[in-house]
Amino acid sequence: MISRLASLFFPFLFAATVLAAAPGPRPEPQTDSRNTDRTAKIVRARDTLQEGWNAWNDETMKAGRDMLLSLLLEDKDKNAYLYYYAGLAEHRLAVHAFASGRTEEAASNIAQAKKYLEKLIELQPDWGEPYALYAALLGYEIALNPDRGMELGMKTFSYFGRAESAEPQNPRVFLLKGLSLFYWPAEYGGGLDNALAVLVQAAALFENERTDDPLKPSWGLDECLTFMARAYSQKGEKEKALDCLKRALIANPDYGLARQELLALQKDK
Amino acid sequence: MSVRLFFGLAGLLLVASFVFGGQEPAVIEGHVFDKETRSPLPAYISLPDLGRGVSAGPDGRFRIALENRPTPGAKVRIVAWLIGFKKIEVEALPGEILSLALEFEPLPAREIVVSADSGLGGDKPQAAVTLDRMDVYRMPGTAADPLYASHVLPGVNSPPDASSLLIRGGAPDETAYHFDGVEITHPFLSQSLHESYFSIFDNQVVEDFNVSTSGFSSKFGDALSGVMDITAKDALFKGEGGLGLSVFGLNSYLGTPLAGGATLIGSLNFGRSELLSALNGDDGQSFATGNSFGKLVVPVGRAHTVRLMGLYDRYRFAQEDGFRAASENGFAALSLTSTPSSAFLARLLLSRTFYGAAYRQEGVFDTTVDDRAWQGRLEAVLDLDRHFLEAGLDLVSRRQNVSWDAETEGDETVRAGRRAVYVNDKFRALDKLYVTAGLRLSSLSLGRPGWRADPRISLAYLLTKKDTLRMSTGVHSQYGDHFTLAQDGRLRPRSAYHASLSYDRSTDNATLRLTAYGKEYRSLFLEDLTGAGWNNGGRGFARGIEIFIKHRGRKLDVLGVYNSLSSKRMEGDVSVLAPSPYEITHSLTAIVTLKGSRSSLGIRYSYATGRPYTPLENRVWDESEGSYLPLWGDPYSSRYPSYRRCDINGTWNLTVGKRMVILYFGVTNLFNARNILRYEYSSDYSIRNNTASIFGRSLFLGLYFPFF
Question: Which residues does chain B have within 8 Å of residue A105's beta carbon, measured at their own beta carbons?
């Protein structure tokens, strides 16, 4: 009797499972720019964030972040870009807090950024860039908890690998990796030379990057060139460093770090 | 005079504040915190009607100035939200100081570990008892073997220094082992009549392992006490590997992405005991091992993945007195995984396992064992967020042969087919209550015909984000020894009724688990002493408590496990309810690991009360046999001496050129404690020999070159 029941039950269950798996009412993440009003709002928030980043002003960055959060609060369609920029905002605030010695605040920003990116990865598992941002956050986590270096270091490798595999032509994947390599020990494949090689690769990819979607991330060339300059400068190749900084300021004339580095380099000369 | 001036100024200020107070903007301020932990939250506070919003600081405090003063007495609508928490909406008067408590958002069913599993893995926030990969490497006395590492998990014990698992008082054969979905019936590198040592699972290729000591999923069956489920590394996005050299031999690992998103993973290890024995002054025996593993992961289109896997393991052992043992062990498997949507996965797995062993003593015995099986599994997983459904079909065809003399083939052969279907639903019954309900139906072509139904249910109640209460109960059946089943067609599978309750507290740096459990054995195989064969009259129980504590500090990690157990069994030729031979009443393990930036040093101490054994009371001369016969005391009424062992190990990371080199050492059984495995008697029962553990004090040295 049980065997008969089982033989009936299993095919039924399997069929039910297959039917239930068919595309249903589960909302797909909306990543296009159909809603122009919302697109404009996201762009405004993103630009405010960038403005704060350019000026190294955390209050402006927070204003940008809060604009994104107000949009996220109303978001019904699970807009992937909102999660991306919220994660980027928290990432940048973490960098600022970390550089200013506010480690508890940095840890809080990292935790928030990870949550947005985890949600984003769940929504769009094939998008490589969020993995790279996540990997970069893990790097800061290691800096805050050096005893977790080995464990998180392996994860960092894995996330960067995943990002590269998903988007081998995305310059920000290589930018974020290059920036991380600056702080990795040479025996793990990090160090100045390795970092510079990856940043050069990123810069080449930035040259070819074209974006038609206003919401698609397009940041990073200024940062890439500035850190390339820093690497050249540390290697004693001042001319190359100067050239990179000038190019960085052409890409983004408001980028404060490039201006600061340029002044320092010119004074040094 | 000055007092007068002070009060005069203060009065003036007070009047000024009344006069000009009306000019100040009204504000909404307060703090946001986690309802359960009371810790501050950097939530976003929005005033939707006024189009204003701000994030609270890391201290949870916020302040929003209102540009225009609202009508006196009019309330302002406030929404507070943070990712991972439920949104709340309140109304307040301007100037009011608010305390906003946010409750965490219920997680999807798949993210909650409902049963009190434990194991390796850092990505399971709800599975409180986990060891990460570095724990396994750093843990003294485990030789980086996942099976040995699992001995420090709560509810897990082992015979002294052996690798087999005694889960909550269960016999070693009551645990099932699965490797990447393939059921492994012989998981040990060296397996003999009494003990087994080390496993065939190479930690270099292990991604994750999980040990269930009760309430395990209906996906797993034919196990009375527990399941060890190991997952090998899979799709890699970056190459990795390593080469190791030690006094025992060579080990190597390579994992590399290939074109088209494919991945190749492989490991190859060889070991010989001569150098190790010379270093530690051991002689009289030698052994050699070889182990290889390969896995190819090939994506086919966006929705399908083909996996090819193979494992081969070889072991040779020789003793001066002429005893020889050899074994070969492995499997080959092919799987196809399809994920037509992010919420659905189906997998078909076909595998062939093989195990062959030979034990020889010139002129005394010559035994060979051959065990082969075909396995087929079809699994489907459906993620509906609130429900996480699993269903599957599990088929095994197994042939076992034992030959007592290698010259004559097929002394005893038994063939059996096992069929099982299962369904498992993990769902969120309430916001904080997660339930796993499962049913497994199985049948075996040996013993009493018919299907066996094993229902199981587990509950997890999230008291807070950090505190979880778990309860599991269920029926678990195991068919047992196929040779015994083949002798008597009336035998039913043995069964165990599990019930366990555990409390977990898991913070960023610390883990605590307290568990109480009971396990009732029924239908155990009992030998009819009148010679009428076997029946299902055996029974027993195992009851106990477990305490697990782990703390991870910047410089120091501490791990402590305590198990208390009471267990009795009536089984085999023991026809009364006697202490179980697997009853270790108290066991304690403490591990302290000191961590430097480039080095680590671990110290482990283990203590366990001795297991019960049946004492020899006397001997009598038997005229008819012309030999002495033993007079045994009450079954399992004495205990072996307590077990004690202290191990240390350490690592030192060096940079040679631009490459990392890890030097490591281990001292096993530092104080050379003589731990008794069992007593053996001379043929006339006049002399008792104490057979001690093979793990005397020994030093192990090696170096490892990781590649990134």
Answer: 57-58
**Residue B236, SS3?**
coil
**What is the number of other CB atoms lying within 10 angstroms of the CB of residue B112?**
25
Render pLDDT for B126-161 as a digit per residue (tens, 0 to 9).
Answer: 556 777 777 777 788 877 888 888 888 898 988 878
- Residue B413: predicted pLDDT: 92
Query: Of the candidates B214, B298, B282, B212, which has an alpha carbon nearest to the alpha carbon of residue B248?
Result: B282
Instruction: Give the CB-side neighbour count of residue A214, counting CA atoms within 13 A.
Output: 15
Nearest by CB: A66 against B54, B57, B240: B54
Contact B42 A115 (CB under 8 A): no
Shortest Cα–Cα distance, B44 to chain A (Å): 7
**Residue among B132, B257, B597 whose CB faces A151 most closely:** B132
Whole-number Å distance between alpha carbons of B276 and B279 = 5
Give the minimum alpha-carbon distance from B160 to chain A in angstroms, rounded to a whole number. Answer: 31
B380 touches chain A (CB under 8 A): yes
Residue B379 neighbours by CB under 8 Å, 6+ apart: B181, B219, B345, B346, B347, B348, B349, B390, B391, B392
Percent of chain A with pLDDT over 90: 65
Residue B577 confidence (pLDDT): 96
Q: Which amino acid is at B330?
A: G
> Given an 8 Å threshold on Cβ–Cβ distance, is A66 in contact with B83?
no
Can you read off the two tokens belonging to residue A60?
Answer: 């402006």
ipTM of this predicted complex? 0.82
| pTM of the complete model | 0.83
Question: B343 in contact with A at a CB cutoff of 8 Å?
Answer: yes
B418 contact residues in A (CB cutoff 8 A): none
For B114-205, strand residue ranges (E) read 118-120, 129-131, 156-157, 166-167, 175-179, 182-184, 188-191, 196-199
For B247, B484, B573, B575, the CA distances from B533, given in Å and listed in that order, are: 50, 9, 11, 14
B121 dihedral zone (left: phi>0; alpha: psi -120 to 50; beta): left
Which of A69, A118, A164, A194 has the most B C-beta neighbours within 10 Å, making it the best mutation to test the interface with B? A69
User: Angle CA(A186)–CA(A192)–CA(A195) in degrees, nearest 5?
Assistant: 90
A211 close to A247: Cβ distance less than 8 angstroms? no
Give the bridge partners for B534, in sequence order. Answer: B527
Judged by CB atoms closer than 8 Å, whether chains meet at A2 and B450 is answered as: yes
Residue B418, token pair as written in the block: 């096992």
Which token pair is A146?
Answer: 């050096």
Query: Does residue B193 have a pLDDT over 90?
Result: no
Cα separation, B500 vs B514, in Å, equals 11
DSSP string, B354-398: EEEEEEEETTTEEEEEEEEEEEEEEEEEEE-SSEEEEEEEEEEEE
Between A129-144 and A171-181, two packed helices, what is the crossing angle to 10 degrees? Answer: 10
Q: Say if the Cβ atoms of B83 and A112 lie within 8 Å.
A: yes
Residues of chain B contacting A155 with CB distance shorter than 8 Å: 122
Out of A56-60, B41-45, B127-131, B432-436, which region has the weakest mean confidence (pLDDT)?
A: B127-131
Of A21, A163, A185, the CB nearest to B343: A21
Phi, psi of A201 (to 5 degrees): -60, -45
**Do the Cβ atoms of B53 and A65 come within 8 Å?**
no
Q: How many CB atoms lie within 10 A of CB B522?
A: 17
| pLDDT score recorded for residue B120 | 67
| End-to-end CA, chain A | 91
Which domains can be identified in chain B, with CATH numbers?
A: 16-102 (2.60.40.1120), 109-212 (no CATH), 226-707 (2.40.170.20)
Measured distance CA(B440)–CA(B398) in Å, rounded: 20
Are A104 and B58 a contacting pair at CB < 8 A? Answer: yes
Q: Measured between alpha carbons, how far is A134 from B331 in angstroms, rounded to an integer?
A: 37
